[in-house]
């Protein structure tokens, strides 16, 4: 493989917490009386918590202050963190785990690039912290995807330039972020429908086929 490093989005790539996010946002939306469904939820893919809340509040007739938004986002996150307690290492597939190990054996540096502030908790629950050389997440960035900051930080943590790294994403916004940052991109899941990625993966282990 020509890449010295690979940067992975977390949700929808390494693991699948979409259902947990949906449950948490649904409970939150119901509490404040705002419509929320699967269609709206799909717009939140790869988007930060506060940006997601702004999308949800587009359906509200009420205007919320910055402080009120923070309170709502905290309420949602508390629900989500409780749901995360049900996660364990079985929520990371053998295919993902074995592919990560195979890439490491090839001498490729691996990093996570996720907008989620809960990334450290999720990696611990999945028992895969030791498979990554660096983590860039919502705790060290100020701009969410499609801004490339999270990926640029990840490359910096790996001591690599963007053109030495491949970004793996399942969201259109994530692919856009990778491209804006000067990275080649590999799409998986929903992002395979996009026409912009460098590669399209049928399955996670297809990463091992990239030359």
Characterise this structure:
The protein has eight helices and six strands, in the order E-H-H-H-H-H-E-H-E-H-E-H-E-E. By secondary structure, it is an alpha/beta fold. The protein folds into two domains: about 130 residues, Rossmann fold (3-Layer(aba) Sandwich), CATH 3.40.50.1000; about 70 residues, Orthogonal Bundle (DNA polymerase, domain 1), CATH 1.10.150. The protein has a six-stranded parallel β-sheet with strand order 3-2-1-4-5-6. Strand 4, helix 8 and strand 5 form a beta-alpha-beta unit. The radius of gyration is 17 Å and the shape is globular. The N and C termini lie close together (about 5 Å).
For the structure shown, list the relevant keywords:
211 residues, alpha/beta, Rossmann fold, DNA polymerase, domain 1, six-stranded parallel beta sheet, 8 helices, 11% strand, globular
């Amino acid at each position: 493989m020509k890449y010295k490093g690979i940067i992975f989005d977390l949700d929808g790539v390494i693991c699948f917490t979409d259902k947990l996010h949906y449950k948490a946002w649904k409970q939150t939306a119901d509490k404040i009386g705002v419509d929320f469904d699967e269609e709206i939820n799909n717009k939140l893919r790869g988007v930060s918590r506060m940006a997601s809340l702004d999308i949800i509040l587009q359906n509200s007739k009420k205007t919320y202050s910055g402080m009120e938004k923070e309170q709502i986002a905290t309420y949602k996150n508390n629900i989500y963190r409780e749901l995360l307690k049900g996660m364990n290492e079985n929520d990371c597939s053998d295919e993902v785990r074995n592919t990560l190990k195979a890439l490491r054996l090839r001498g490729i540096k691996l990093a996570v690039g996720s907008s989620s502030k809960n990334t450290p908790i999720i990696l611990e629950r999945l028992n895969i912290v030791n498979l990554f050389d660096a983590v860039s997440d919502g705790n060290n960035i100020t701009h969410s995807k499609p801004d490339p900051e999270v990926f640029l930080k990840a490359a910096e943590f790996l001591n690599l330039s963007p053109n030495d790294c491949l970004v793996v994403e399942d969201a259109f916004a994530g692919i856009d972020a990778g491209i804006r940052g000067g990275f080649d991109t590999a799409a998986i899941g929903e992002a395979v429908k996009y026409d912009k990625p460098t590669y399209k993966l049928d399955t996670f282990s297809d990463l091992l086929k990239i030359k």
